[in-house]
Every structure is written in structure tokens, then in C-alpha cells.
């Protein structure tokens, strides 16, 4: 019998030494036209991301024209003084680039992604869109029709309908935050090319704008490219608009948006809190994650795993508008959906979770898992240039220092269980929450009233 040769085993690969990671720090500069530029070299990121922030907030929209900022944002890619809408789209495609834009409470933002090898072409198209948008009457009319077509679909979405109602409940009717970001049917149908052009002329200029450029910039003379493209954009001098204070009423109450026959109830429970300038923000992020940030959070453990009421419930904090003087605000909310018959029991258990949290606090194990998930995955979260550019743009938009995100991760890792508990308990006080339920009022009103979590009123879904 032939003797088999002994097997040779290759050595098992061993993990290398962990490399330190920190959120990248940008370099700042100002072009001759007043445009502020943040750049960040990211080796290997061959798709360059560019974010341009315009100081054109929603509260700057003229009375009765809610949505004009959104139409203007969408119209930036619908032709320039050089190209028609079709030609502009074709030029973007030839460059392998994408250009998106949207309007929100802090302002209008344009987002460009383009291969590094075609960055000059991408920046040229972006500069043309900002410098000389066509705002052709036919294109604006089409965008208005598209927006009007979207509104019924948004109203049909329980989650979107709940968000609309919560904003209406939290903020005074005179505040822009109380109304839909992209306008209503009544206001959007009044928008025309003249209104869009007037809003552009009044608020869009390089002196109050910021551009963020992130990607592999090796071998690229970015200074020259910017000077020839975004640097050619001119406009009148201007100062940034003051940020008006945010006021809200978080008196505990319940609003049921009636959807007869609905088999599920959409929950949106919220109030306003401080923005990222507040020292409590890192602890609040950590505590909110422990409450409802993942599948292992308290809310999911009770409402999903133990009771089977839902596929998932989440808690989160979303900055609405930020100001260094403390007058900004964030939305602190809990969202999810439950089956209609269990709406009352689910809310009862949710409030029990909040009361238990206040009485007993978080555990060290919960805190440790949250830190691992929030801080440990950060290098993966920021693998793309677009993710880095988006966060840098958020920092500019929210008047934060350039090292805010890096400091946030360091602070999160050092935040203790007691601090996180205090922050989340203060963020979600059981008696100061506005609860919006989109569901069948005939089935859920009585059991919800029996909970005693606030006055209950019913409104139409229309």
C-alpha cells in the first residue's frame, strides 16, 4: 500500500495591527468670489463627491409660495444658458456624473458625484447650473405638475401623513416648520418661473455659499479647477440670514388621523429638543440608541420580540435647524407601526418602557453595545466620498466646527451609562410627548383614551 505524503498546511492568516481612525479633517479656503471651499483628500476614492450649500432656507420662501425652494432646487438641472434640459442631462451622462438637489429648513443643497478623471467637466456643469440656470417656463411648469402629482401619494403614506401631522401639532401655524417642506397643493400650484427666478435672485450667491469637495485629489490641480468653474460664478455680496428661534408645544396629547378600515396603526411620538451645540448631544445620541436604535434596543425587545406587536420600533434624533446660540432644535421621536387591535396594548407597553427606563436606568451592557455599534462601525460608514462630504456639509449647515464629528466619536466612547440614562430620560419624558396615530379611529380611540397619556382628538386623513 502506497504511503500518502503528509499534508502541507499553509499558515493561518493573522489579523494585522489595527490602524487608528478618525473622521477626516478638511482644509478650508475662500475663492475670489467669496465662495467658501472645504476640501478633503481621500486616497482611493475615485468618485469625487461635491456638496454645495446655498443660504436659501425654507423660512425665506415668500408667503403663500411654500415649495418654491424645492422647485428651484429641482430646476437647477433643467438647463442653463448653454444647454437645454435635454442637453444638460446628456452632458452629465457623458461625464458619468449625477447631480441632485433638495431644499430643507437650513437651505438648498446640490450634490454632485463624478469620476475623478472627469472632475473638470462635472464642476463645469455644476457651476453652469448655479451661475446661469435657465428656469425655462415650460420646465418649471412640468416640475410644478410633478410636485402636485406627488402630494396625493405622500398623503396616502401613513408614515408621511404622521410626519405632516406631528409638525402641524408641534409648531405654531405661523412657523414654516409647521407646514410641509415641499409645499401644499394650494401653494405649489401658484409657483411659476417668475417666482423661482425671484427666489434665486434674492438668495443664491457665492458669497453666502459653501462647497465641499471630497475624493482622491492626487494629481488634480483643484485650485485651478475651482477658479475656472465655481470661481466664475458671480453674485452680489450678501450676509448669511439670521436663524430665527424655534418654539414648540410638547404638551402631552394624542392626535388620531382617521383611516377607516386600516389594519395597522402608524405611530409617531415626538417632541423637540436641543441641537448638536448642546453639551448633552453625545449622551443623548447614546441613550436614544439604547432605547430604540437597533434590533437589540429596549423598544424592539419588548414590542417586537416579547409581544410581537410590530416588525420594529425606532427612536431617533433629527436636527431641524441648528444655531450656536442655542436657539436651534432637533426632533426627538419614536416611530413604528403595530396591528390595529393591539394599538392600545402596544402604547401601554411603550409607556411602561419609558417609565422603567426613568426608574431603573440603562445597563452597562446596553451602553457598551451602543458604543460598539455607533463608534466601531464609523470607518465602514465613511468608506465613500459621498458619506464624508455629506457629513462635512451637515457640519457647515449646522454651524459646527470642522472637527465636530471626530470629537463626537471620542466623546461617545467616553460617555458613561449614567450620563446616557439621564440624557434619554430627559429627551423622552413620558408626560411631554405628542403622539400621532394614523389608523382606524373607531377601533383605537377608546383604548388609547383609557391609557391616560393625554387628551385625544381625531382628525380626517384628508
TrEMBL record:
Q: Which domain of life is it from?
A: Bacteria
Query: Which regions span the lipid bilayer?
Result: none
Stretches assigned to the Peptidase M16 N-terminal domain: 38-155
The family database entries (InterPro entries) matched by this protein are listed as: Metalloenz_LuxS/M16, MPP/UQCRC_Complex, Pept_M16_N, Peptidase_M16_C
Q: Provide the coiled-coil residue spans.
A: none
| Region of interest: Disordered | 1-20
Domain called Peptidase M16 C-terminal: residue spans: 190-374
A GO molecular-function descriptor: metal ion binding
Q: What is this protein called?
A: Insulinase family protein
